[in-house]
Every structure is written in structure tokens, then in C-alpha cells.
Amino acid sequence: MPSAVMRAASRAAAALCLGSALVLPAAHAGLFDDEEARRAILEIRQRIDNVRTAGESANQKLAEEVRRASEENVQLRRSLLDLQSQIDNLRSDLAKQRGLDEQLARDLAEVQRRQKDMAQGVEDRLRKFEPAKVQVDGREFLADPAETREYDASLAVFRKGDYPGAQAAFVNFVKRYPQSGYSASALYWLGNAQYATRDYAQAVANFRGMLTVASDHPRAPEAALSIANCQIELKDTKAARKTLEDLIKVYPQSEAAAAAKDRLSKLR
């Protein structure tokens, strides 16, 4: 009996040992699979954390770059606004400068015009006192403006038929301007005024004075003929004949010479 029990116990122990041997490898295998899974999970989590950290860092960098770009954009806009303001100011200054330049140009033109007017006025005033070229009876000479005015006024009196007035005017002129280029013509018209007032002796004296001053005067032949006419009026036929003969010799081609020939033929 005890032997049977012991054999049964031995068989039971053997069976137990066999079961334990069979159970232990299976438990060890299950335990290994859980470790690998945990490590894999941890690695995945690490990778996710790394990716998340990298993403956050990238986002931070991007945000920083966006912030910087925004600040630079703001600064650029300010710079552009400042530049535009400067351009507007320059345009305004340029417009003002153009306005000033135009005003200065107008002022300069006005000053130049006034200077020109003043210079012309001064020149005109000086011209009233400075000698100027004149031409009378085919002769050209210099004469003072006052001298010319007085001569013209005296001649105007003669041409109006006021012979006494013309005589006084020309006498005064000859006294005031004895060296004048008008002298010969003035003596000629003075002699004619005296002839018209029948002052024959004085007329002869002034006609001869003219011939002495300017024997080549264009009116010299007429003056010689007028002397002969005065002598005829004075009944000095001999002197008149001599004057007419001299006239024909000295001025043979003149109209006065032709008239002198006619007078000679009538003198007795």
C-alpha cells in the first residue's frame, strides 16, 4: 500500500514537474513580448515628442521670421512714407523756386526795360545839347540843336511873309552864331528879307557877306544876281552891270547866269 501511494506520489510529482516545465517557457515568452511593445511605444512616443519639439521650434522660428518680416514691412512703409513726404516737400520747394525764378525774371525784365527807358531818356536829353549833322542847301555840317531850332524858326517867319520879323530874327541869329554852318544861308535869307523891305544897301552888304563866307554855296549865284537887282533899284547901273558880268564869268552854268545875260541886254 505504501508502495502504491509512493508510486502515485512519484507519478504526481513527475506530472507536476512536467507541467511546470511546460508552463515556464510560455510565461517567459509572454513577458518578452510586452517589453518589446513598451520599447516600441516609448520609441514612437519619443519620435512623436521629437517631431512635436521640432515642429514647435520650427513654428517658433517661423513666427519669429514672420514677426521680423512684419516689423521690417512696417519700417519699410514708414521709410516709404518719409520718402514720399520728402518728395512732396521737394516738389513744393521746386514749385516755389520756379515761382521765384519767374518773378525774378519778370523783375529783371522790368529793371532792364526801365534802364533802357532811362538810357534813352538821357540820350534824348543829351541829344538836345549835342551837335548833330544837318543838311541845308546841299551842305552838311554839325550844328547844336538850339542853333538848328533858331534857324528853322527864323526861316519859318520869312516863309510866312513876315519880312521885318524875319530880318530881325536872322540879324539876331548871325550875331549869336557867327561861326555857324548856317551862316551863309542865314545871310542869304537876311538879304532877301531886306530886299523885300527895300533896305537895298543892307541887302547888298549881306549878300556880299554870304559870297565872302561861302562863294561855293549853292545859292551863291542867286546872291550875286540879287546884288545886281539891289544895285538896279539903287540906280547904280554901272555897278549892276559889273556884278552881272562877274556872275556870268564865275557861275557860267547856273540859272542865275542865264538871267544875268537877259538883264545885261536890258541895261542901258
Main pleated-sheet profile: 2 strands, antiparallel
Q: Percent of residues in beta strands?
A: under 5%
Radius of gyration, in Å, reads 71 Å
Q: Looking at the structure, what is the overall shape?
A: rod-shaped
By DSSP, the count of extended strands is: 2
What's the pLDDT, averaged over the residues? Answer: 85
The CATH class of the largest domain is: Mainly Alpha
Uncertain segments? 15-24
Question: What count of structural domains?
Answer: 2
Describe what you observe in this structure.
- It is a single chain.
- With 268 residues, this protein is mainly alpha-helical.
- It has 2 domains: 1-95; 132-266, Tetratricopeptide repeat domain (Serine Threonine Protein Phosphatase 5, Tetratricopeptide repeat, Alpha Horseshoe).
- The protein has helices spanning 2-127, 145-159, 163-176, 183-196, 200-213, 220-233, 237-250, 255-266, and strands at residues 132-136, 139-143.
- It has a two-stranded antiparallel ribbon.
- Helix 4 packs parallel to helix 6 and helix 5 runs antiparallel to helix 6 (220-233).
- The radius of gyration is 71 Å and the shape is rod-shaped.
- The termini are far apart.
Which structural traits does this protein have?
268 residues; two-stranded antiparallel sheet; 83% helix; rod-shaped
